[in-house]
């Protein structure tokens, strides 16, 4: 299968982990932002996490440089537009992009202005390319509960206007869900969909708690349900969809190598899995590359791919009109 030309859906992609290196250099030069280097290849070395990365925390260090140039409305809009442009050029038909608004307030931008700028970039890309999208607002688990309430409240007015869901991300500690029960409950009350990063770093029980305590409809990664029978069963029984990211999972050492990844075992056992990039720049990847990895490692058939594609459509937070359009693309496969 030539995944470069096949229709694709991406549900788990971080804005700040997917900034073009040349864009970082261009903005930094124009705004006088200090970088370790202004050479594209050297900056790529700073941005891309190696496959032999030691942990999730080491992987997350790669996000500090992009954040330096994501502190104005103009830059956020540009970076959002370029991400959707890059995805469209590899035939991604729909993408949900997530980001943490509170990381972009360093120079005084309001949360509302930050969210609006990212939506505007997405909308411009939708007009120019054959792609549709939505935005997921991430709350940082390393920040306070109050900060999560702030994101939920200030993102509320964008629901149905580009924003569809709330997320919890960053370093994963055991039992983190208990801390965020109230803000996520409020988000659900307001109409946000819920996807939670959990089970990425060896704590399968976090997935169980994300589903039971936070009402997670999707789980970011979820690799370690393999080591927690209760989490495995609830994901399977409730058909909670896993947003899996093979390259990222090797980099963060959720798995040691691609052949160890549980995505295909999960798929064959009736768990709903999807394929995603996580971070296009930090993981030096594309949706086509991720699909190739799964295909090469596990002999994924055309029927397997169609099944996973439909999982992605059904699990997306798009409206029914867009879902109908996305399903029709399968007819061409």
Write the layout of secondary structure elements.
Blueprint: E1 8-14, H1 21-31, H2 40-47, H3 56-60, H4 64-68, H5 73-89, E2 92-99, H6 111-128, E3 132-140, H7 145-155, E4 163-169, H8 181-190, E5 193-198, H9 205-214, E6 218-221, H10 229-238, E7 241-244, H11 246-251, H12 263-268, E8 273-275, H13 287-298, H14 302-315, H15 320-328
Parallel strand pairs: 1-2, 2-3, 3-4, 4-5, 5-6, 6-7, 7-8
Helix pairs in contact: 5-6, 7-8, 9-10
Family: Belongs to the metallo-dependent hydrolases superfamily. Adenosine and AMP deaminases family. Adenosine deaminase subfamily.
Organism: Cytobacillus firmus
EC number: 3.5.4.4
Give the % helix: 40-55%
CATH class: Alpha Beta
Q: Which series of helices and strands comes N to C?
A: EHHHHHEHEHEHEHEHEHHEHHH
What is the terminal-to-terminal distance?
10 Å
Largest sheet: 8 strands, parallel
Poorly predicted spans:
none
Domain count = 1
Secondary-structure class: alpha/beta
Provide a count of the helices: 15
Strand content: 5-15%
The CATH superfamily is identified as Metal-dependent hydrolases
Strand order of the largest sheet: 1-2-3-4-5-6-7-8
Rg from Cα: 18 Å
Query: Overall mean pLDDT score?
Result: 97
CATH architecture: Alpha-Beta Barrel
Total number of beta strands: 8
The multimeric state of the shown protein is: single chain
The gross shape turns out to be globular
């Amino acid at each position: 299968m030539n995944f470069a030309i096949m229709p694709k859906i991406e549900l788990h992609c971080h804005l700040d982990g997917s900034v073009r290196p040349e864009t970082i250099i261009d903005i930094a030069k124009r705004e006088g932002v200090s970088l370790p280097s202004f050479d594209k290849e050297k900056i790529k070395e700073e941005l891309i996490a190696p496959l032999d990365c030691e942990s999730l925390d080491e992987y997350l260090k790669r996000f500090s440089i992009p954040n330096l140039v994501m502190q104005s409305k103009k830059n956020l809009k540009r970076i959002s537009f370029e991400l959707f442009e890059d995805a469209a050029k590899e035939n991604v038909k729909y993408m949900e992009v997530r980001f943490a608004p509170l990381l972009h307030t360093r120079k005084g931008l309001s949360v509302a202005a930050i969210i609006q700028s990212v939506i505007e970039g997405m909308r411009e890309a939708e007009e120019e390319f054959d792609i549709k999208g939505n935005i997921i607002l991430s709350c940082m688990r390393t920040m306070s509960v109050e900060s999560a309430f702030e994101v939920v409240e200030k993102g509320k007015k964008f629901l149905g206007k580009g924003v569809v869901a709330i997320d919890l991300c960053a370093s994963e500690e055991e039992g983190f869900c208990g801390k965020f029960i109230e803000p996520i409950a409020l988000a659900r009350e307001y109409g946000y969909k819920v996807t939670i990063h959990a089970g990425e770093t060896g704590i399968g029980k976090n997935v169980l708690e994300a589903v039971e305590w936070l009402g997670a409809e999707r789980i970011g990664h979820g690799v370690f349900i393999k080591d927690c029978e209760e989490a495995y069963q609830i994901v399977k029984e409730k058909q909670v969809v896993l947003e899996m990211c093979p390259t990222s999972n090797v980099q963060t050492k959720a798995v040691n190598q691609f052949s160890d990844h549980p995505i295909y075992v999960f798929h064959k056992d009736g768990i709903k899995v999807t394929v995603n990039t996580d971070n296009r720049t930090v993981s030096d990847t594309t949706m086509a590359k991720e699909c190739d990895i799964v295909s090469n490692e596990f002999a994924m058939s055309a029927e397997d791919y169609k099944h996973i594609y439909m999982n992605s459509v059904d699990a997306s937070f798009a409206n029914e009109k867009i879902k109908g359009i996305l399903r029709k693309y399968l007819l061409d496969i």
